[in-house]
Amino acid sequence: MKQTIDTEPWDLEIEPTSGFFDLNWREVWQYRDLIALFVRRDIVATYKQTILGPIWFFVQPILTTIAYVLIFGNVAGISTGGIPKILFYLAGITLWNYFQECLMKTSDTFILNQNLFGKVYFPRLAAPISVVVSSLFKFFIQLSLFLAAWAFYLVTTDSVQPNVTILLFPFYVLLMSGMGFSLGVLISSLTTKYRDLRFLIQFGIQLLMYGTPIVYPLSIVPEKYRIFLLANPITSVVEAFKYSFLGEGYFSWIGLGYSSAFMIVTLFLSILVFNRVEKTFMDTV
Fold this sequence. Notes:
It is a single chain. The protein contains 14 helices and no strands. It is an all-alpha fold. Helix 9 (169-191) packs antiparallel against helix 12. It starts with a helix and ends with a helix. The mean pLDDT is 82.
């Protein structure tokens, strides 16, 4: 009987990855139906038992924009570079919220799904990938709110001057999703062993927002401090997005190249750490 078992061909053999950058992307693609189910779960479960439901996707940026207009625009008197305040803050909030959503939810993926990971096998990257995709649903809803306000000011005022770089919009979204995904996977891999990193990340993401020109334009930052903001890879993307749609902002191919390089390096680093942690993370999570 033992000889029969040893020689019996297997339909599927699950083995741990052997190399640092050994990821079976073909296997991830084979589980695309599972990723679609995860996406549906993330979208439906978020507002399943709420009164307003998906309307919260609109309420959140509207209330945040109103707060920014009152606090930063009126009370603090921070300039928006000649752009209508509502439109300026909506532009920054829309792109930032997508990055923050990808980063925060992806960084909790392995801890929140530990019971599921311990019961059945599937490519672990399916979970964070589904977060990035489901976050796109919320992003495009909030983007429609921004585009509605943008179209209104475009027709009624001369303060909005879009340009040909608006064609780079899909590239901006790719950069933000890529950075959110890679940083989230890296953090999630580390928090399987060091849980207190979660609290540090929650605090750090708030500081990062103020280190990104969301509530102020880069142009009002003194020249000697501007280099520190440009060291933030998100800055060039947010400023380029504002420049493309509003005609006011900082657009630099070098800056976008830096953001792209940061995303690629971080992605490789997150894969390296993920492959190292994946073999034992069920023992430490």
